[in-house]
Amino acid sequence: MIQEKKTFSLSTEELSVAMMLCGYEQAAADALKNTREWKSDEQLQEMIGEAELLLRRRGYQNEKGEMDHGLESLIHLLMRAEKKVRCVHGKTVMLLHNMGSRKVLVQTCEDGVHSFYDIDLTKKEQGEKTIQDFYQFPAEQPIEMEPFMMSSEMFQSFSVAKTAAQVNELLSKGEHPPAMQVFMKEFVESGCFLNNLSLIKSDYITDENEMPEIHLFLPSTSFTWYIDYTEVDTQGSVYFYPTEASSLIQMIITRMKMWFGY
Q: Tens digits of per-residue pLDDT, 46-60?
């Protein structure tokens, strides 16, 4: 078990080497390959040596190659947690790993640096604060925007739109409600990127992941758009709801607790 209130901060290279030293060679290799294009195996091995040296300088590994017990415990929890939740906000990622108790191991990744700490998800001030701090939902004000609906065909085109030109082309086809036009404008301003939350079931032995549930949303000025696509197959429609931050946070906490079995 990770020591109470002990935190860790590691680069992707340091984390990958720590995973390798704990016996998770394949997962470590995959993580390293995703960081950049390696010109040769020699270049990769040189980087591994440098990262291992940094671990020693930072006191995470002794001269005998033995790892800090806290970091070793963290790596095993990280890799063996069967159920996880992945939160994405822009280019920042946060993973919550179920620790088999009321505690959750939180992993944030920004600019190639991974930070770790644990929280008690059953404590309102910890769970809700973690979600709000990560997503930075806008302050609540009276919602004057109307929800709108999008056909499955349009949503399919929307889901692959990556530029303002592609979004404008979608809007040029037919008449659309004002709320949709506002949403599309905000979507373009966000870089054509939706924030999301995924429930993940992971198997570290087979290195396979399942995502039974994915939630999509986009921040606006005083509320957040929640995208409900649960009826896209049965009704051929996707619904976009202006949602208060408190309601969205409560939904996220409820889904995470159910997923982790709390």
A: 887 888 888 888 888
